[in-house]
Write a structure and sequence with these properties.
CATH superfamily: Carbonic anhydrase
Largest sheet: 5 strands, mixed
Bound molecules: zinc ion
Number of helices: 8
Strand order of the largest sheet: 2-1-3-4-5
Mean pLDDT: 90
CATH topology: Beta-carbonic Anhydrase, Chain A
Length: 224
């Protein structure tokens, strides 16, 4: 059994660090940490990223920028629509198992083209339909909800992928169940620059957390 580095934060501490960075970014008070030669040199000994971000490839959704982090802080996987396939899953498993990263965040975002195209049923060429197939279950869930269909589908997609990760075997589900890894879904607003939590409920706060709406996304956890 490999033990986590002693300085690795807990999942909740990692989440607080991310959200504090986002607050700095959204308010225009970035500190641009860990982006110099000293950090580059320090990282030659190895990497200990405190959070995994599964985000969209959209050029406007840049994790290190919007969370005000630097080199060695985030283990980032970006694919259109922030969906899973086995290579994405394997990448995340590597971070959880071998780098002991305690937090995995699935980050959806407003105006996501991949989700919008899936909602619209746009006919796509090449390998693009694979992305739509992965997103479609979230769209079906969103159709049952009141409000804006695209916005709801974006949120449901992030929550669905988070659930797929948290329940995936053989690596992540046992780590999640043992309390060693936490998977959360979040949403980035292109207009405000702010990240908000979708699931589970926001991290520990002075007031009792509201009941989490257990995944409305019972839809196929199948990873394609
Ligand atoms: Zn997107």
């Amino acid at each position: 059994m490999i033990h986590a580095p002693v300085n690795m934060p807990t999942a909740n501490q990692a989440l607080e660090r991310l959200m504090a960075g986002n607050t700095r970014y959204a308010s225009g008070l970035m500190s641009h940490p860990n982006q110099n030669a000293a950090r580059r040199t320090a990282l030659l000994k190895g990497q200990h990223p405190f959070a995994v971000i599964l985000g969209c490839s959209d050029s406007r959704v840049v994790p290190e920028v919007l969370f005000d982090q630097g080199m060695g802080d985030l283990f980032v996987i970006r694919v259109a629509g922030n969906v899973l396939d086995y290579i994405v899953l394997g990448s995340i498993e590597y971070a959880a198992l071998h780098l002991h990263t305690p937090l995995i965040m699935v980050l959806g975002h407003s105006k996501c083209g991949a989700v919008s195209a899936t909602v619209a049923g746009v006919r796509l060429d090449g390998h693009l339909p694979n992305i739509g197939v992965a997103i479609q279950p979230a769209v079906e869930t969103a159709r049952k909800l009141p409000g804006n269909l695209v916005d709801n589908a974006i949120a449901e997609n992030a929550k669905m992928v988070a659930k797929q990760l948290a329940t995936s075997t053989p690596v992540l589900a046992p780590l999640v169940n043992a309390g060693k890894v936490k998977v959360v879904a979040a949403h980035y607003d292109l207009a405000t620059g702010k990240v908000s939590m979708l699931s589970p409920a926001p991290a520990p706060a002075p007031t009792p957390a509201p009941a989490v709406t257990a995944a409305a996304t019972a839809a196929s956890p199948v990873i394609r």
